[in-house]
Amino acid sequence: MDYSNLRLEMEESLGKEIYEFLEGDIIKEIIREAKIEKIENNWKFILEGHSFKVSANMAPSLYNIFDEVTKKLNFKDKVDFYVTNNAELNAFAISRLEDDENHLININSGLIDKLNDDELKFIIGHEIGHLYSKNAEIMKLIQFVFPDPDHTPIIVKHKLGLWDKLSELTADRFGYIACSNLEVILSVFFKLASGLDTKRINFDYKSYLESNDGILEFFNQSQGRNLLSHPINPIRIKSLELFSKSKLISKSGKSRKDKNLEEEMEKLIDILMVVSSSEIDMHRKYFLAAGGLIMANVDAEINKDEYEQIVKVLSGFTIFPKRFINQFFQEENIIEIFHKAADNIIEINPSEKHNMLGYLVDITLADKEIFNKEIVFLYEFGTKHLGFTKKEVAQIIADIVQKNFMPKVFS
């Protein structure tokens, strides 16, 4: 059975975009060529040396569960399963580097102790989902190109984060197919969230679903910052509830589209796409986009470097900066939007005036040319809207020019 249609459309398209952005084919070949020993990677050494490799002889019960899920998902690649002595309720999958190697899936002992066999199937199916979709391979590339997450360029950081969350939602669908019981899956999420065993409380999955809807509504209304590596549990639970009622997989086993599911998933994904719910961040976003385009177009031509500078700064406030910028190209009242955003920022935080003018100066210098019209615009905006004197505006411009201006090379 082909389960490729289980994937979320945005997860799949973002994954392809990220793979191309990272030069996936080239980087994979470099990694292969750079290997000294024919091993999967350091994780192979770590797991072999410090974990228990599940085999039919040593752990027939566990092996049979892993084997059953693999066959149910029709996953043909070979996988080595490990159990690591770790109380943390976690698991992970690592894709192979060579076609003749095995993928790796590790399950922490905390999960083995806490979950029953049916619950464990969801976890295993989820991890195989990462391999099936090849998202584990993309994650490996991300970790190779950006080994320190804190140093990931802001221009791609939020987009990588959104893809990571969407890949979890896709993997959850594979977990559902492996388990095929929403009540069991909900008990998994309860245990992961609370650390409690459902035997010690009166666990009612229907009540859990109702309370989940209430929590989800809170997040939907507040649109709070969502920067965790995994989507919040209420979104994952609602996503699986919708999936369990969908027509995506028919009784005949053939994948098909479900328009209602897609529409409901869009609402959930909208929550994940919120970078910040701060009022001032909303005004900053409009100021950066509208002001950047106005400043870049003062000389009647928006240079590629100017556009990329706007995108770079705006990336800190929206996952899809180019999409947000492009909506302003058709705005007839873009100047009004720009002035209103500037006024709102100043009203909330007057100390940002210097940074606001500095941003416009940076756009001016991005094309490595300075035009008189641009300086006139900076003087006018700085004095009339930011309250600087002409001398103060000149001092700010002079300071940035001295630090950052790189004229074009002599022709």
The termini sit apart by 62 Å
What is the C-alpha radius of gyration, as a whole number of Å? 26 Å
Q: Which consecutive residue ranges, at least 5 long each, have pLDDT under 50? A: 224-229
Secondary structure class reads mainly alpha
Secondary structure elements and their pairing?
Elements: H1 9-21, H2 24-34, H3 42-50, E1 52-53, H4 60-72, E2 79-84, E3 91-94, E4 103-108, H5 109-114, H6 117-132, H7 135-145, H8 154-179, H9 182-194, H10 205-222, H11 233-244, H12 259-272, H13 279-296, H14 304-314, H15 321-326, H16 334-348, H17 353-365, H18 372-384, H19 390-404
Parallel strand pairs: 2-4
Antiparallel strand pairs: 1-2, 3-4
Helix pairs in contact: 1-8, 4-6, 6-8, 6-9, 8-11, 9-10, 9-11, 10-11, 11-12, 13-14, 13-16, 13-17, 14-17, 17-18, 17-19
Describe this structure as you would to a colleague.
There is one protein chain. The chain is mainly alpha-helical. The protein folds into two domains: 4-272, no CATH class; 279-404, TerB-like, CATH 1.10.3680. Helix content is 62%, strand content 4%. A hairpin with an 8-residue loop joins strand 3 (91-94) and strand 4 (103-108). Helix 17 (353-365) crosses helix 19 (390-404). It is elongated, with a radius of gyration of 26 Å. The N and C termini lie far apart (62 Å). Residues 224-229 have low confidence and may be disordered.
